[in-house]
């Protein structure tokens, strides 16, 4: 299987919402309009993963602050369940880290998402705190993770 990586576009918003509903059911998945708003913001960047011209993954990162040194925050990472375990999530996050170009990067991840935590730790993120009931609908907690400049 060949996966191509590039920019996420507004035409991808509906597919992203479809994947969100599968991936984050019970945790307030983002609708298409949320992706459209993210894509319209100048300080937010999204990467897409496509297999056979089908969107199978997406990830977004936002630059925080107006003056250097910037920090970044990963907003979301999603991979179609049929394509998980093939390194797509790692590639998406790696590309986001390239956008951050050595800056400090933060993210939140459910405390029970062992696969994602393992991925983030392997990329240099460390747990720096817990956000109780971060996911409002389910009430699940999230770890805040940070990756310092390399």
From TrEMBL:
Its main location: cytoplasm. Keywords: Cytoplasm, Transferase. One of its GO terms (molecular function) is protein-N-terminal-alanine acetyltransferase activity. Pfam families: Acetyltransf_1. It is found in: Cytoplasm. One of its GO terms (cellular component) is cytoplasm. CDD domains: NAT_SF. Residues 3-150 form the N-acetyltransferase domain. It catalyses: N-terminal L-alanyl-[ribosomal protein bS18] + acetyl-CoA = N-terminal N(alpha)-acetyl-L-alanyl-[ribosomal protein bS18] + CoA + H(+). Its EC number is 2.3.1.266. Belongs to the acetyltransferase family. RimI subfamily. Acetylates the N-terminal alanine of ribosomal protein bS18. This is [Ribosomal protein bS18]-alanine N-acetyltransferase. It comes from Mycolicibacterium pulveris. The gene is rimI.
